[in-house]
Design brief:
This protein has about 180 residues and is of the alpha+beta class. Helix content is about 30%, strand content about 20%. It has helices at about 15-25, 45-50, 70-80, 110-120, 150, 155-175, and strands spanning about 5-15, 30-35, 60-65, 90, 95, 100-105, 130-135, 140. Helix 1 packs across helix 6 and helix 3 crosses helix 4.
Length: about 180
C-alpha cells in the first residue's frame, strides 16, 4: 500500500451510474462510490426515497483521486463535459431534483476552482449553465447494487443506450486522461 494522499471530489450529473462509469476510466482516479448528498430528510436515505424526489438529495459520486496525476480542475472539466450542465433537474429522460447538476465542494479551494471552471466552460454552451455549487455536508453511500453498476450490467438497456454513448464521448474528448490499461 502506498502512502500517497488522495483528494476527494463529490459530483452529481444525473444518474450516478453514468458519472461513476466515466470516472472509473480516468487515470489517477482510484475509487468511485455512488451515493446521495444535499438532501433534507433525516437519516440515511434509500434509493427508493431518492427516486421519489421528496428527500432533496441528488444522486452523486464520490471520487478519490491522486492530485499528482490529475487535478481537481481537470476532474471538473471532465465532469462538465460528460453531462449536460444546462438542464435544470434533468439529464436526458431522467428528471427530478435528484438528477440535478451539482458540484459539492469539500473546502474553499475546491469552491473557488469550481466557480472558475464553470465560468470558463460557460461560453461553450448555448444555454446558461445551471450547475449548483454547494458545500458538502454529508455523503451517504448508495446501496451495494448501485456500486460498479456499468461494469456489472453493460448489456442492460440503460447501460447500452445511455452510458455507453457517454463513455464514447469521454474517450473522444479526453483520450489523454484515460487509464492506460483497461480494468
Amino acid at each position: 500500500m502506498n502512502n500517497k494522499k488522495l483528494d476527494i471530489a463529490t459530483l452529481g450529473g444525473g444518474c450516478f451510474w453514468c458519472i461513476e462509469a466515466v470516472f472509473q476510466e480516468i487515470e489517477g482516479v482510484t475509487k468511485v462510490v455512488s451515493g446521495y448528498s444535499g438532501g433534507n430528510a433525516p437519516g440515511k436515505p434509500t434509493y427508493r426515497e431518492i427516486c421519489s424526489g421528496l428527500t432533496g438529495h441528488a444522486e452523486v459520486v464520490q471520487i478519490s483521486y491522486d492530485p499528482t496525476i490529475i487535478s481537481y480542475e481537470e476532474i471538473l472539466v471532465i465532469f462538465m463535459t460528460s453531462h449536460d450542465p444546462t438542464t435544470l433537474n434533468r439529464q436526458g429522460a431522467d428528471q427530478g431534483t435528484q438528477y440535478r447538476s451539482v458540484i459539492y465542494y469539500h473546502n474553499e479551494q475546491q469552491k473557488e476552482i469550481a466557480e472558475v471552471v464553470v465560468k470558463e466552460i460557460a461560453p461553450y454552451y448555448d444555454d446558461p449553465i445551471v450547475t449548483e455549487i454547494s458545500h458538502l455536508d454529508i455523503f451517504y453511500e448508495a446501496e451495494e447494487q448501485h456500486q460498479e453498476y456499468y461494469r456489472n450490467n453493460q448489456n442492460q438497456g440503460y447501460c447500452r443506450v445511455v452510458i455507453a454513448p457517454k463513455l464514447s464521448k469521454l474517450r473522444e474528448m479526453h483520450a489523454d486522461k484515460l487509464k492506460k490499461t483497461s480494468v
